[in-house]
C-alpha cells in the first residue's frame, strides 16, 4: 500500500472510496459528485493498493489563524474528509494517513488539528484513540415532511421547503431530540501536535 499526494486522476476512485466508507455511518447521504477543493492551502492524501484508492484524507490549513478552524488557538488544519474503503477498514490505514498529514503539517509550522464528526461511536472512538480531545458539540437536525412547514417558512410566494438541514447549539437539546426524527450530535475534536519533527 502506498500513501501519496492526491492527483487529479484519482478523483473517481476518491469519490467511490468516500461514498462506500460513509454508507453505513451517520453521513450516509453526504454524497459528492466532484472532489471538494479548498480556498486555503491543503494537504490531500490517498492510500492506494493495487491501483485502487482505499483511503483518503484532506486537511485545509490556515495561513492566518482563525480563517478555517474554530477550536485552534493558532494556525491550524481542518480535517474535511477522512475515509477508508470498508473492505480495508481496521487495518490502520486511517492512522497512517493521519501520521503522514501530521508530518507534513509540522514541516509547515502548524501544530494544531481540528475535526468535526457525527455520533458514530466507532468514529468518535477512532479520534480519541488517535490523540484528539472532544472540545465542543452541537446538534445536526434534519427536518422533513409536515414538520418543515411548522418550523420553516419561505419568504417567496408558492415556494415551500420540504427538507431542511439545521444546526442547533442551544440548551434544550433534549427537546430537539424528541421533536425531530433525525438528529445527530456533531462533535468537535482538537489535537495538539508535538513541535519536534519526526525523524
UniProtKB/TrEMBL annotation:
Keywords recorded for this protein, A-Z: Transferase
N-acetyltransferase domain residues: 1-149
Gene Ontology terms, MF aspect: acyltransferase activity, transferring groups other than amino-acyl groups
Alphabetized Gene3D superfamilies for the sequence: 3.40.630.30
Name of this protein: GNAT family acetyltransferase
Lineage: Bacteria, Bacillati, Bacillota, Bacilli, Bacillales
InterPro entries to which the protein is assigned, alphabetical: Acyl_CoA_acyltransferase (IPR016181), GNAT_dom (IPR000182), MshD_Acetyltransferase (IPR050276)
TM region(s), chain numbering: none
